Task: inverse folding
């Protein structure tokens, strides 16, 4: 739950489409469609600043049609939001991130705790894999 919520923070830090990912208890990774290198320390600092803002998490619901009219809300290229039931749940960390998600989340960003980017790997021509773990 904490690391999954942290991946929402990471999406706010790195403004690029997500091409893949994996989340476990103490570690997670997201792959971004990002041809240029990014700085590990800068991403770590930006992540922790967002987490320390201790912003509340809210859920909102929108219709499938509303989501289709706002494609910028969908960050993942590899997984489509759960549509077809009439409504889609949006997860919002105030002033940080808003996107469709059916996962479990902390109630405030500060509950995530301190993290660090342990590695950034180039995965193919266009992908950067960012691995995050608890500090």
Result:
């Amino acid at each position: 739950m904490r690391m999954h919520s942290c991946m929402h923070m990471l999406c706010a830090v790195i403004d690029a489409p997500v091409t893949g990912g994996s989340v476990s208890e103490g570690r997670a990774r997201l792959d971004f469609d990002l041809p240029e290198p990014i700085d590990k320390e800068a991403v770590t600092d930006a992540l922790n600043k967002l987490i320390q803002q201790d912003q509340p998490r809210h859920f909102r619901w929108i219709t499938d049609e509303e989501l289709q009219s706002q494609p910028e809300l969908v960050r993942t290229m590899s997984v489509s939001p759960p549509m077809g039931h009439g409504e889609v749940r949006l997860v919002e960390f105030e002033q940080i991130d808003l996107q469709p998600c059916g996962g479990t989340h902390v109630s405030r960003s500060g509950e995530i705790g301190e993290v660090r980017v342990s590695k950034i790997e180039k995965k193919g021509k266009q992908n950067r894999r960012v691995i995050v773990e608890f500090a």
